[in-house]
Amino acid sequence: MAETLVVIPTYNERENIADIVGRVRAATPDVDVLVVDDNSPDGTGAIADGLAASDPRVFVRHRTAKNGLGMAYGEAFRWALARGYDRIVEMDADGSHAPEQLPSLLRAADAGADVVLGSRWIAGGGVENWPKYRELLSRGGSGYARLVLGLPQRDVTGGYRVLTAHALGSIRLEDVHSQGYGFQVDMLFHAQRAGLAIVEVPITFVERERGESKMTGGIVAEAMLRVTLWGIGALPGRLRRRLVR
Ligand SMILES: Nc1nc2c(ncn2[C@@H]2O[C@H](COP(=O)(O)OP(=O)(O)O)[C@@H](O)[C@H]2O)c(=O)[nH]1
Ligand SMILES: [Mg+2]
Q: Is the pLDDT at 1 greater than 70, yes or no?
């Protein structure tokens, strides 16, 4: 049996954390859960500690400050690899990524994928209760990153993913610098360049009902800028490959 760890990064998710951990443990009883909290002022970390105290499969890492999704996941990946997990799942705390859909993502990993992307923008996937501007931003962001980076996947910014230990071992994590959500594009770009088997599985992303989004214009701007710079950096290689073909 593959040992699987679900990583849930949190910042001010007091109203969501118990719910999401409970849903993960119910939907997939054989997986462990790691909450990575950035010292949330609303006390999310203490609630997570309570969950860990009553369930030996739940763990918590406390970070000192809000340093972005990329840093939180970086710490979680190192923690998971040091403990010998075979598969690491990325999942938001706010219920947007339904734990009930996790078995279908894990089946794709069972079938041989190194990286499984929960995808909103392939047949069978979608979003619920998302404001139109968020959908346009997400579709536009994916489209731009696909074009500039030459990525074939449809949903390149999503945060519901499975990564095998092999995949994490093939990506130089110290090369993944992005702080915010650009981290997801960054990881995928590195996975694609490492020649890993990447599979998209449809998911329905449901907008949060409680708490607030941490998405900011600065996070979007960072992602756009980095994607553009990587695209320029990768251009000579892409042109060379096109010429020799
Ligand atoms: N540890 C940590 N978690 C974060 C940070 N920013 C966002 N998150 C978490 O990442 C997930 C996605 O964030 P969310 O605000 O829902 O983004 P949205 O769905 O794009 O609006 C949630 O579980 C957040 O609590 C951060 O700086 N540190
Ligand atoms: Mg959210």
A: no
Please indicate whether residue 155, judged by its CB atom, sits closer than 6 Å to ligand 1: no
Domain boundaries, the chain: 4-244
Q: How far apart are CA 96 and CA 7, in angstroms?
A: 14
Report whether residue 60 contacts ligand 1, using a CB cutoff of 6 Å.
no
Min mean pLDDT across 105-119, 153-167, 170-184 is at: 170-184
Residue 178 Ramachandran class (φ > 0 left, ψ -120 to 50 alpha, else beta) = beta
The confidence score (pLDDT) of residue 245 equals 66
Which residues fall inside 5 Å of ion ligand 2, going by CB? 92, 94, 96, 208
Helix (H, G, I), strand (E, B) or coil at 227: helix
What is the overall mean pLDDT for the chain? Answer: 94
CA 203 / ligand 2 centre spacing (Å) = 14
The topology under which CATH files domain 4-244 is: Spore Coat Polysaccharide Biosynthesis Protein SpsA; Chain A (3.90.550)
